[in-house]
Design a protein that fits this description.
This protein is of the alpha/beta class. β5, α7 (189-202) and β6 (205-210) form a beta-alpha-beta unit. The longest helix has 31 residues, at 299-329. It has 15 helices and eleven strands. The strands form three sheets. A seven-stranded mixed beta sheet has the order 2-8-7-6-5-3-4, sandwiched between helices. Helix content is 46%, strand content 13%. Bound molecules: pyridoxal-5'-phosphate. Residues 34, 101-103, 129, 176, 181, 209, 211, 241, 243, 254 line the site of pyridoxal-5'-phosphate.
Length: 414
């Protein structure tokens, strides 16, 4: 049987990560995957998360099965966190099931769309998160794209609106709620309102993917477009990931939220999501959801978590500002300005695929061919090296004087 398998296409991100693993150059910098690292190169367990885990380990008496919707208190906490409501009008219009992280939420909701509207087209941004198209297509949905950003590094609202004018009633438009992956470019508040106007007028359903809330402008600011959309449209889908903002990457913690018109449609949506999950994995894992619930339900832990999230956000913002300032000082003001406008864990460097290859081969700086780099993965003292490498590739290929080739701590932190 297995000899009939043909080799699947390689995964470019994990291939690059493996290439980095085999790179022995001490100055190497791994900026491929979206993982936060502190200045010692570690992806920390957040203190609020650790404290919740201790309490859970001491207090939980049973690991009995949860139901098909997972941890119900977690689902309520997610609806409340995301929609900024506690059983108020919008919260009352929501159904939620716990999922295997953000990816699981995307897939469950895609399957739900396929069940209810098999002919729906899902519109994804161009460029999109690398998994959006495969997940939607695996669910059997047709995928089309709408423009996201222009060459100036700003959201291309006219382009978006022009492309989305072709979206039909009952089509689904996948929008990243904040900190767009891979570009780091987010629409302005006015642009979000214009998208909501269009959704209202044309009847398509917004499908918001939230993976980086809290890492752009702050938790409430990052969730504002999602909440605004929720207040304007009758139906909406939201895929929520707890991987980045709770640092729970490997615990696979997330939530699928559906906003609907009536209690009955919401009940049907929840049962459908449960049935989809049943045939895939039955129930989601409990640990991450229990941790998040413990953090969000305890006022002290909740504010400790928010403070830690703010520190992470501050580091990312500082890294980006420092990189932009150094590029400006090295004679690349346009690149600096474009970078300076971006938000969240990722930035797109204004480099071609060939320049990204040179960055990797000549300077051991690993980003994706599209120019995406994980700005949250660089130790602050490695920014001069990163800026110098980018400037070298943009210029005559030589590391500018003053940009460190390597420092000892930086090598360890990689
Ligand atoms: C835009 C976006 N959505 C969803 C996800 C899925 O995250 P996870 O499945 O790790 O929670 C990611 C992860 O990188 C992402 O960038």
């Amino acid at each position: 049987m297995l000899e009939l398998l043909t080799p699947p296409p390689a995964d470019p991100l994990w291939d690059l990560a493996a290439e980095f693993g085999a790179d022995a150059r001490p100055e190497r910098l791994n900026l491929v995957l979206g993982v936060y690292r502190d200045d010692t190169g570690v992806t920390p367990v957040m203190r609020a998360v650790r404290e919740a885990e201790i309490r859970l380990a001491e207090g939980s008496a049973s690991k009995e099965y949860r139901g098909l919707s997972g941890n119900l208190a977690f689902n309520r906490a997610m609806v409340s966190l995301v929609l900024g409501t506690d059983g108020s009008e919008v919260g009352g219009r929501a159904a939620a099931v716990q999922t295997v992280a953000g990816t699981g939420a995307l897939r469950l909701l895609a399957d739900l769309v396929r069940q209810t509207r098999p002919d729906a087209t899902v519109w994804i941004s161009d460029p999109a998160y690398v998994n959006h198209r495969p997940i939607m297509q695996s669910a059997g949905l047709t995928v089309r794209t709408y423009r996201w950003s222009g060459p100036d590094g700003r959201a291309d609202l006219p382009g978006m609106l022009r492309d989305l004018r072709e979206a039909r009633r009952d089509d689904v438009v996948l929008l990243q709620g904040c900190c767009h992956n891979p570009t780091g470019v987010d629409p302005s508040p006015e642009a979000w309102e214009a998208l909501a106007d269009l959704a209202e007028r044309r009847g398509w359903v917004p499908f918001v993917d939230l993976a980086y809330h809290g890492l752009g402008d702050g938790l409430d600011a990052d969730l504002r477009p999602t909440r605004m959309l929720a207040s304007r449209v009758p139906e909406m889908l939201v895929a929520v990931s707890c991987s980045k903002n709770f640092g729970l990457y490997s615990e696979r913690t997330g939530c699928a939220i559906v906003l609907g018109r009536s209690r009955q449609t919401l009940r049907h949506a929840e049962t459908s999501l449960q049935n989809i999950a049943r045939t895939l994995y039955s129930m989601p894992p409990e640990h991450g959801a229990a941790v998040v619930t413990a953090v969000l339900q305890d006022p002290a832990l909740r504010s400790a978590w928010r403070a830690e999230l703010d520190v992470m956000r501050g580091r990312i913002t500082d890294n980006r500002a420092d990189l932009a300032a150094r590029l400006r000082a090295l004679g690349h003001p346009v690149a600096a300005e474009t970078l300076g406008r971006q938000k969240g864990m990722f930035s797109t460097l204004p480099l071609t695929a060939d320049q990204m290859r040179r960055l990797r081969e000549e300077f051991a700086v690993y980003g994706t061919a599209s120019g995406r780099v994980n700005i949250a993965g660089v130790a602050a003292h490695r920014i001069p090296y990163l800026a110098g490498s980018v400037a070298a590739v943009l210029g005559d290929g030589r590391m500018p004087a003053g940009a460190q080739r390597l420092d000892a701590v930086g090598a360890a932190a990689g």
